[in-house]
Amino acid sequence: MAQETSRDVGPIVLLGPPGAGKGTQAKRIMEKYLVPQVSTGDLLRYNVAQGTELGRAAQAVMARGELVSDDLVCEMVRQRLKQPDCHRGYILDGFPRTAAQAGWLDALLDDRLFDNSRPTRAWPIVIRLEVDYNELLCRITGRRSCPTCGRIYNIHFQPPAVDELCDVDGTKLETRNDDRLEVIQPRLAAYQEQTAPVADYYQRTGRLICVNGDQAVDEVTRQIFRIIEDHHS
Ligand code: AMP
Asked: What's the predicted TM-score (pTM) here?
């Protein structure tokens, strides 16, 4: 929907409960600014699928809708941000999720892992997507994703052209294991208990920007692009 630009954008943090649209918006930011989406949920699911040591440690916790330990997640993020594709910036989707992770990220950026040649610290742009609770439930239960290309659909709002098949590659769409109704409740509770304080952390330091995530997807994207542009002007 938007023209690509290859400007440096630095770290962008997307906050918001499960189903707020972080993944959808991250993909759009990625397409416009050509910086990678670093989704801790995706990275963890990849590790689970590959049966790595991290995946084996995380699997049961994730299936219960609880949070994986800060130590494991932070180390995974540290390794990912070292990759060359993160040098011009990256979009953190699903991280930080606890106040401890937010403090850890600030310390990491203080070390200027992000870009050693940069004279000043690379402050993240922190955007919180705010969505009504009932709308969240509807979005999460309707969510389907393509295991091949990662495209996200919603059977209520953004259905594929052919039932349960990806428009792009025809792969059968999947429901995430933790999008089942019985797991959604603990996930939303984990968000309230552990992740809402992350927003408070950024609010206290005057870095929190809120966007109404109940609006149409394109409007949310438009506002996020404006925030990124304003941050760099
Ligand atoms: P998500 O795809 O972001 O909803 O994440 C799916 C699951 O992965 C969560 O319910 C947690 O179990 C785990 N997870 C993802 N990101 C984090 C994080 N930053 N800290 C701890 N656990 C996480």
From this structure: 0.83
